[in-house]
Amino acid sequence: MSQEFGWGYYLREVFRSRSGAVGIVMLSILLAAAVYVTLTTPPSVFQSWFNPANWVNNPINVPPTWINYFNGGKNPPSLQVPITFKKIYSSPTIYVYTGVANFTYSYSSYPTDVSLYLSFSGKISSINVQWVKPDGSSVNFSVSQPTAPSSYDAASVQLQQGVLQYLSKVTGRSYTSLSQAQVVQVLLSPPSTLSSNPRVEKGVYGLKLLVIASSQVNFSRADLFLKGSSFGTMGTDFEGRPIGLGLLLGLPNALEIGALTSIASVIPGVLYGGISGYLGGRKDGVMQWLMLVFLALPALPFLVVMSYVLKTSLSIELEALLIAFLSWPFYAIIARSAALSIKSQAFIEADRVMGIPSYRSFFTHFMPRLIPLTIAYTALGVPGGIILGETLAFLGIQPANVVTWGRILEDAYANFAAVNGFWWWVLFPGIMIVVVSFPFVLVGFAIERIVAPRVSVK
Amino acid sequence: MGYGRFLVKKAISYFLVLFATMTILYLFTYPVIQQVIKSSANYIGIEAKRTILASHPGLPPEQVNQEVQKLVQDYLNAYGVNKPFILQYFLQMKQLISLNFGIAYYLNSPSGSNQVNQIIAAYLPNTILLFTTGTILVVALGTIIGLFAARYAGSVWDRVVPAIAVIHSSLPSWWIGFLLIAALAYAVRLFPPGGITSIPPPKEPLLYAASVIYHMILPLLAFMIVNVGGFAYVIRSIVISVMGEDFITALRARGMPESRILFRHVLRTASPAIATQVILAITGSLAGSLTLEVVFLWPGVGLLTYNAILANDVPVIMGVTYVLTIVLLLGLFLGEAVQGLLDPRIKVGE
Amino acid sequence: MILEIRDLRVYFPLKRGSVKAVDGVSMDVEKAEIVGLAGESGSGKSTVGYSILRIIPPPGKTVGGQIRFEGEDLLVMPEPEFSRRIRWEKISMVFQGSMSSFTPVYTIGYQLAETLRLHGYEGDPESRMVELMKMVRLDPSLLRKYPHELSGGQKQRAFIAMAIALNPELLIADEPTTALDVVSQMSILNLLKSLKRDYGLSVIFITHDLALLSEIADRVYIMYAGKVVEGGASERIYKTPKHPYTKALLASVPSIDKAKLEGIPGFMPDLVDPPRGCRFHPRCPFAMEVCRRDEPKVKSVGGDQDVACWLY
What we know:
Number of helices of chain B: 12
Number of strands of chain B: 0
Number of helices of chain C: 10
Strand content of chain C: 15-25%
Mean pLDDT of chain B: 85
Strand order of the largest sheet of chain C: 6-7-8-3-9-10-12-11
Number of strands of chain C: 12
Oligomer: heterotrimer
Distance between the termini of chain B: 14 Å
């Protein structure tokens, strides 16, 4: 009975099995995506995840935009309207600019927020903002001595004042304060409906700004945001960060920790188990005892404690090493059982009879037979590493300044996403974990079935 | 006769393992341990000062401080602080093995104690309840599924098991728990979203037990969804391997009905290998179970650890690690004891 | 005659084709007779044995022929009836690889008692087991032991004890002495001979070892590539072998006075696509034109000896 264990044979066999082929295809796509993300995204994008200022213009806790296909447009996406500026007057001490923006609002629900975002260089004394509604009436408010960058939304004092004035003018009643949602309603409803049943006024809206400055002003960024109640392909979290981006940024880390953990635990584990099975007798017994010592260490608490011992210096590599430190016995046990069954096959005896020294036989004949098993479990070990890594991140144990899906899920947990029904926040990160683990498991199972180490009942 | 001796040998072996594992833990957590000792000593000093001042109000401050200093020093000496390492190792290991983990920084037990071992003692039973129940269910269900998959190997039903196993191996249990809560506790109000009993807990023992069971359903479901598939797959492999052995053909030749072959002979022969898998399953699913506690607000040591992480309460985290190590070892010892019981080759000795 | 096999065909459907393991085999077994079934590995001899008890490992299936036992065709008997009346009660089997014929987790006694109970034995199982152990010359105290505590020879005898527990008429022994030491081999052979003599047991002894058969068999059938090529009274086969394959087999048996080992050149044919005509013709030193074309039929060459060869 010939036993081929060449690499080419196993690769072909894996492709032959349907699940193996699917797995490999998925793996390639994932790897390509991860490499692409790592290479093309500058580190600043990764870091931007942690800076709330970057996301201030996104709606928070909103579902993905495609949900509108299912609920008839109840969650309008966000609008970003650029404002164009023109210098209309300049003298050595006074500079005047006008800004103009127009947009059409055609959704039947209100946006969650309206905000004006300005980023500029120079000294501005005052800005007068005029919000023109389709019916012609306008809401005015002004801002003095703005800093750069500035953002004025429905919660800001200046806009509130302007809206209150407008409201009393149009309805004849005066109010003391308004909620954010009410401010938005006032801005986007026809005046006649305001006192009773406000509804959205669809139509063309305009924005006019009058900027008075004491120096030359350069507007690097000026936008009007109507934050809808949906965003992106996967929605946003409590800081307005797009979940989709978070998942993409977390991909290289997840793969890295999975791969490192797997390699660091499978290879030593298989070596250890192989040697233990090969040696047999008392040495095997001692080695097994040592395996038990490591097996008995509970992974999660140990890793948590170690993160405290190491304090801030927890890197992905170190985390992977620690996980591997506890995981290798699993693979040693499997490898040992396989080694025992290999040992029972006669050719080892044949080697000994032929006078080949046992260590040489070990490396040339014995260990290579464990290679397919090693490959299978290297693949199977990756999801374990990924899941454990994300689990730790979920509990708060992770390298600093790294985007992980576990952390995203922890934010979801801490912000009661389940209670509030922010399903996208919970579903998509988890699905990513599954999607990434799945092909590894497929490939691993496919290889394992081919290798099929006789699970020794002896 | 043989089994008794086997047990004793195993017990000794496990004691050695316990010792070795604790030593490794100790070496790795050494700096944290010293920290905890010092802060506990500090705390003792403060408490002592308060007690002394309360009972002897007239005492001059220097005398009070002297007394306090003496107490603190005694405490530190008991732990061998500022002594050579070997002494430290023995003294501190002695404390650890007698389950003395010092004073928690912030957390308290439900009864108000801030001794780490008492805090853990309050939460540990809940973890054991959830985890043991879950493991038993997984093993029972997984064995049945694996057995039948092996019996009908090659048929349509058999294809299902590897498929399920693949999916299950890619799921984090706590995420499933999250989804279950969102779906079955909030979207459809079928199950409680967390906790161990309803609030306030029912007084009558039967109702109390029922409430606990009701609250266990979702976490157990999450636990099983994630762990049954892989376990069933391994059992299937083992059973298929056993069914290919010669003695099975001999049994058929003897006219034995398939069902009897399967349950009396195959299962029994496969039991030792299955027991090994149970041991592996226990160690492998513990992390997921602890995290499940967090998601379900199940008052076990997993949730305790999470709260300790949030509060930076290192003594508690340390204590949990040591306690779980001991518990895990106990579980593994039981597993090996059962394995020895089932396998006559071990019982009688080869 | 207690067993007549006529034109038995057993095929194993594989992906690349159907392996014709047994392709038209006929043989007879008389009462109190030890019949040898000899051939190389892969000749189909073990499969014949398995097919009698209907325990051919899947995907193999019997696709043709008859096996008449005491007048009834075993192959058409409904399974429950076969299992109840025939298996182990009338016909039983002893396997090669005696190492693992017993379930490793139960004692010998437990398994013996289980078999007795299964078939509704009416007497006292305890005394019957002791009696059986004595019949196979084993110490009854071994009943309390586990299989791994017995030596290879002891296990084989114990299994024989279990095989004759219900007084079957026919015992199929598939390579029962392979992997045993020579001393144990002889004692098993003697045991079988005494069982035949004292209890009228018939045995089909399947082996590749012709030398062994010469010690024990009354009649011998030689199989090659799924077919019987020669059969008859043991002395005739050994003294005057007719088929070239038989001759080559006998010549290859090592003996003290032979200087060199002789093998048979060539390989066993592929049973999915066997050679046309006589299956042995590629390796036969006497192959003729007709041998390549047509399959020879079994013909009697006198004095209880039949051959399937164009030479006759």
